[in-house]
Write a structure and sequence with these properties.
Elements lengths: L13 H5 L2 H4 L2 E3 L7 E7 L12 E7 L7 E8 L4 E5 L12 H4 L11 E3 L5 E10 L7 E4 L4 E2 L6 E11 L3 E9 L5 E9 L2 E9 L19 E5 L3
Parallel strand pairs: 2-14
Antiparallel strand pairs: 1-13, 2-5, 3-4, 3-7, 6-11, 7-8, 7-10, 8-14, 9-10, 10-13, 11-12
């Protein structure tokens, strides 16, 4: 398991332990008219604790959120908190994985997801916020408010990421995951070719079943959540 997932989880609550992209993704395709740019408003802006006089930059990174292995795109943030990010039309082959591997299932699952078509390739990306001159991101972005954990992959409620697919693909499966404590999940990921919105969702409460349902394109400002070491 990659350090970008389980090693970042600090809470013992099931809700924080199971909010992993693989469990909760639903592909919401960006309209072709919206490509290759993604525009938005950061909120709050500037966020509490932002270094005075420091400009901000949005980066689309892959790998561990605290230290991305590669940055696919970046854009300056205006003084009013607005940005426009040009999304790449393609991604280097070395960054691809099969959709189920890209979605990073946790340890201890008692099922193997089905992928269709078998040759599909995909990757997961994070929208990250940097202060000028700093090498480590200060925050990640979400289109929906939720109770954050230590990374974009932990917390309760719902969050939004981006996923790239080289062709239309689906990943489906259901069962139980977890090492010390099992929890039920329902995985149903539908991706279009190109960039997709990814909604991460988990219900709260003991015994809750993680479910995935199709949603319209999320609306609203991009909310900032601090990244914890």
């Amino acid at each position: 398991m990659k350090r970008s997932l389980y090693a970042l989880l600090s809470s013992k609550s099931i809700a924080r332990r199971i909010l992993l992209p693989a469990l909760l993704l639903v592909g919401l395709a960006l309209s072709q008219e919206a490509l290759p740019r993604l525009s938005g408003q950061l909120s709050p802006w500037p966020p509490p604790g932002w270094p005075e006089g420091k400009a901000a930059e949005i980066r689309l990174g892959i790998g561990a959120p605290q230290a991305p292995s590669e940055v696919l795109a970046k854009a300056a943030v205006g003084a009013d908190g607005r940005f426009t990010l040009a999304l790449p039309g393609g991604v280097a082959a070395r960054a691809y994985a099969t959709p189920d591997s890209a979605l990073q299932l946790p340890e201890g699952c008692d099922f193997r997801p089905s992928v269709s078509p078998a040759g599909a390739r995909a990757l997961l990306a994070h929208l990250l916020v940097y202060a000028g001159g700093e090498a480590t991101p200060r925050a990640f972005l979400s289109l929906r408010a939720y109770q954050p954990g230590g990374s974009p992959n932990t917390g309760t409620g719902a969050s939004t990421l981006l996923v790239w697919a080289d062709q239309p693909a689906s990943v489906k499966g259901s069962g139980r995951c977890g090492e010390a404590e099992k929890y039920r999940i329902l995985l149903e990921v539908k991706l279009e070719a190109g960039w997709n919105f990814v909604v991460i969702r988990v219900p709260q409460g003991p015994g809750a079943v993680v479910q995935v349902r199709a949603d319209p394109k999320p609306e609203g400002d991009f909310l900032l959540y601090p990244l914890r070491p």
